[in-house]
Input
Amino acid sequence: MRAKLTVKSVMAIEPADKDVILWDTEVSGLGLKVTPTGRRTYFLYYRTQEGQQRRPAIGLHGPIKPEAAREIAKRWLADVAKGGDPSLKRSEARAAPDVAALCSRYLSEHAMPRKKASSVENDKRHIEKHLLPAIGSKKVASVTRADMTALHHAMRNTPYDANRMLALASKLFGLAERWNLRPDGSNPAKNIDRYKEEKRERFLTSGEVARLWAVLNSDAGRKAASASALSAITLLILTGRRLNEILTLEWRWVDFEHGVFRLPDTKSGALTVSLNTAAIAYLRKLRVEAPDAIFVVPGKFAGPMVNLQKAWRRIRALAGLSDVRIHDLRHTFASIGAGMGLSLPLLGRLLGHTQAATTARYAHLAQDPVRAAADLIGAEFERMIAGNQI
Output
């Protein structure tokens, strides 16, 4: 049955016991199928250049009118004339992975084999909290720079997290290009301006250190936090180590004979940490108190302590240091060393920095004793000159 497809001709077809086909007289291959239930669907019949028969659906009558179906059919036929296969393209598009699948592949094939567990957990947090809710259902190839710009903008109140999310997304889509899921050079997370991040440099003064130390050794401190929490904070002050390094520290990694920690896995890789005499003395005290313990800072169930934040908030409140973060104790350790005139390369080795730029933040502090020495020499010159003038 053939007729020009119009709303009138389409609706005039009565459903039968089997499918009824009405072919359009205007565009070759364009047809309408009416099922026994009355469902009316536009489709296009064509052969590829290899002779394969195709009959992809264009859409349902109602949402699509005959004129729109005719225009779509014309575009598809033009593609076929150029050697294309619209039906195959649609099938490939439907089978193409979405961003959720890309994230899963990223974690299993890239992050887990190459990154530290803590970094993988951080990636998972960004993926689950930000990327999946916003673009997880989108096809990898369909995500645009506008999508990523909108997501980045939505996180503007947390600029640090927004920038980390964008960096992760850039890596994801960079891998998508490598895995042939997107065209080369199409990364939608690139060329988006990052938010300015305020670099925080909070160092405790000598008076603040004294107040904190007094609280750690007071009855009030012992009531506010567990013995393990107090030990952890004390070791953070004395060693300048990262929080996770202290919380996961095992006694087998403490070498009393040579006065070092031998950490098998840190942010900087395996690391030997030199300890000062105060830290060694404190560790000996802890070992005497718990000779059979596995962890230097044990948790409640024989494993390592996992959360210091609540105890820290109580301790810092008692010390009047409400704006001090745990990581600021490491900054303070470094600032004391820089203020004593330690060279930045030596300070970097002590802290376990792999990049000189990380230690460079303390450069202005390292110059203080140098400047003081210059002032002493200048004052002596002034005294000598003044003496000659008398």
Summary: The mean pLDDT is 88.
